[in-house]
Design brief:
By secondary structure, the protein is an all-beta fold. Helices cover 0% and strands 51% of the residues. The termini are far apart.
Length: 120
Amino acid sequence: QVQLVESGGGLVQAGDSLKLSCAASERTLAYAMGWFRQAPGKEREFVAAISSMSGLRTDYSESVKGRFTISRDSAKSMAWLQMNHLRPEDTAVYFCAVGRSRDPGDFFSWGRGTQVTVSS
């Protein structure tokens, strides 16, 4: 199973930016990659996904559309989540994941997560 390690989380103020990174233990060319998040007391929710291979297709949740950008480098088995105009409601643990498609229900392996805290 693909092992994923996230990094780049931290404590920022509202309006700031952060860039999360995800490193995979093996080639992820054939998989979609995605980001999910879980806030305290809430279920894990989909944030963004990018298609396999060259990553030409992306999907975003409505709450982050226009503020977050997902990208990948399949040759390096890396993915990133650029988060701009952060809001306190973006506070959560963010998880990288790999999936058979961009459909949130098709993701099957997650990392341990990185904490993002946005203060008002």
